[in-house]
Amino acid sequence: MRAVRSLGPSAARTRSAILDMVRSSGTVSRIELAEMSGLTAASITRFVKSLLDDRLLVETGYGDPTGGKRRSLLELNPRARYAVGLSLDVARLSYVVVDLGGEVVGQLVSPGIGQSTPSVTVPRIADELEMLFRQVDLPVEDIVGVGVAGAGLDLGTGVDGWSATTDEWDSFAVQEALQKRVGLPVVRDNDAACAALGQYWTGRIPATQDFATLYMSLGFGMGLMVGGGVSRGASSNVGELGHMVVDIDGPECWCGSRGCLEMLAAPRAVVRRALGSPGLAAELGLSGDEAHVRQDFDAVARAAAEGRERPRELVEDSARYVAAAVLSVVNLLDLDLLYLAGPGFVDAGAIYVRHIRERVARVARIRAIHSVTVELSTPGADAAASGAATLALQHVLMPHARVRREPARS
């Protein structure tokens, strides 16, 4: 077995790294943990005992006979701890409660932020969290915290910036405000990073497997997992795929550049072309209202998935641009595993997967060395919320992989 890269100097970090190895292994023996970590059998026994005492691990039978004493197997105790994830989105707020294994045990959906201000939305979120807690009826002491996912979060500034909501959100620290109201630790990250972390956790992906998750809501983001943690960059803004230039002579983007992926392939771009296609808006029941871009795009995507010609052409155009952007990322980072997540991929995700697979297999620089696996993530539309919940689990239970917020460079 391949050793982990670093367990860290402190006992707490070592303990959390062992817990993470059990998570990724599914079931594992103490001897296998010693081999993976490089620790002595005595050290592993000591750390495992503390995890068993805290109910985070359970013994679950024995391994196959090897001629000597059969090895007892360990696995996570999924009912030991829980966390809440919230995906803050213009169209809807999605809440999930997950257990330690990442399984969803409670869920709530409510209207999105729209143009509401923080002073209106945060109290509503606190009330809806209380409603969700009553529904799931779990011991309060077993809920470790709340994770919040949102578009355009800049961790390096110390406040939260939201790319698709009202200006008032741009300087509002939602983490601190919500923590005061709910009385639980609150952590936050952007939706793409949360979706990647959720895939890492629930997919039992080991820390040695690097991968990326492409997230599409109203725009694009990419979460990059490296060494069991989310890659951050100088100001915690890794993954702005929506502003990768795919056409140097393309339309102007609000970021100041031209030909960004967001302007050519995001839901707004698809809906804009659909509205300009004679008769298509009426045929699909498109509103053309900026406040209903998500619903209009979903209607186009569903029609495309059904094989209707003009909607399929529009989504295929979007998918070709996305595939070109992903190809550049694959070439740059030497990826061999990519997931697609988020509400934008729910209805027509298979079209995007096909275009990305075909383009990467045909012209990726590394195609002769290794293949690239491209898959749709689960749970799809709620990937950010589920990932936000695992962010809270990781923050509290696995300090060796905790998000590190570095100040933005001036």
From TrEMBL:
<dbReference type="InterPro" id="IPR036390">
    <property type="entry name" value="WH_DNA-bd_sf"/>
</dbReference>
<comment type="similarity">
    <text>Belongs to the ROK (NagC/XylR) family.</text>
</comment>
<protein>
    <submittedName>
        <fullName>ROK family transcriptional regulator</fullName>
    </submittedName>
</protein>
<dbReference type="InterPro" id="IPR049874">
    <property type="entry name" value="ROK_cs"/>
</dbReference>
<dbReference type="InterPro" id="IPR036388">
    <property type="entry name" value="WH-like_DNA-bd_sf"/>
</dbReference>
<dbReference type="Pfam" id="PF00480">
    <property type="entry name" value="ROK"/>
</dbReference>
<dbReference type="InterPro" id="IPR043129">
    <property type="entry name" value="ATPase_NBD"/>
</dbReference>
<dbReference type="InterPro" id="IPR000600">
    <property type="entry name" value="ROK"/>
</dbReference>
<dbReference type="InterPro" id="IPR018335">
    <property type="entry name" value="Tscrpt_reg_HTH_Crp-type_CS"/>
</dbReference>
